[in-house]
Amino acid sequence: MKKSIVILLLIVVIGFIGYKMFYNGFSDIESIAIQTYDKPFKKGVITTDKDKIATITGILNRAKHESVCYELANEPSYEMEIIYKDKTNDILWIHQGFDKNKTLLYGNNCNAYFITEKRTKKMLNLLLNENN
Description:
This protein has 132 residues and is of the alpha+beta class.
């Protein structure tokens, strides 16, 4: 009995640590707007499809996260606005080709997220193609 309680407690602790390590705080997203950097959000594509948002949330939560402020010399490829159900928002600037096979998603609150080009293509296809 004592051994099974210790094993159960160990599983709970490992699960909690894994959750904290691999969760970047993207949840309860209501909609996502994306457009090229030089256009306003009203001219971009707005997605409210729950399946697309769930897939994109998974990509963002699995991204490598750093709390760092960058000063970048080049303009981002896209600008993405995430609107949450509590009506707050985050803005992420998407810098494709930031590093070899890496895309930088840089937030308005000095948070940097790195995803692979494969995940970038999947995310952009979901957001920009209304047929998917």
